[in-house]
Amino acid sequence: MREKHSALRKAAPSLIAILVGFIVGLIIIVATNPSAAGEAIPEFFKGPLVNGRAGVGNLFYHAVPLLLCGLAVGFAFQTGLFNIGASGQFLIGGFISILLSSRLSQLVPSPLMWPLALLSAALFGALLASIVGVLKAYRNVNEVITCIMLNYIVMYVVNDLIKRLHVYDQLRNTTIAVATHVPSMGMDILFPGTIAGGGFFIGVVMVILLHFILKKTTLGYEMKGVGLNRFAAKYAGINEKASIIKSMAIAGAMAGLGGGLFYLSGAGTAIAVANVLPQEGFDGIAVSLLGLNEPIGILLSALFFAYLKMGGQAIQTLGYAPELITIIISFILYVSALSVLFRQLLDRRTKSPIDEGAAKAHAATPPAPVAGERGDHNPEEKGGAQ
Question: pTM, whole model, 2 decimals?
Answer without folding.
Answer: 0.86
